[in-house]
# Entry
Amino acid sequence: MELEARDVPSGERQKIQGRVRSYQAEQRQMEKELKRALIAFSDYVRSRDELLGGDDANDVEDQKARLLDNTEKLERSTRRLESGYKTSVETEKIGFQVLEDLQSQRETLKRARDRLRDQDAELGRSSRILTGMFRRFVP
# Structure
């Protein structure tokens, strides 16, 4: 389609190339969905085979061992998640404290800047007064 789009007059070429890109994007999306479906199907088949496997005592023991193994993994993962959650809560608290400190410092800086502007204005006024006084006394 891309080659055919190149042979089309320039007015329609952009339109056709847009469609080609759209079709290619749709194809990539469908390929991704196919891969997901194949993975899900293989997981389903594996799970089914595990469930319908055999009734041997070894299989039961293996299942128990896997179950215990998975339970331990789940408990470790739970502990890690809880630890991560605690860390995130602590980090959030510290973040709020930092934000409050920054806001306080910003307000302090604004007040200092305002005072500095006031002092600058007063100094300018004082300078004008002194210049005027100097001109009156010095002929």
The CA atoms of residues 54 and 60 lie 9 Å apart. DSSP finds three helices and no strands in the chain.
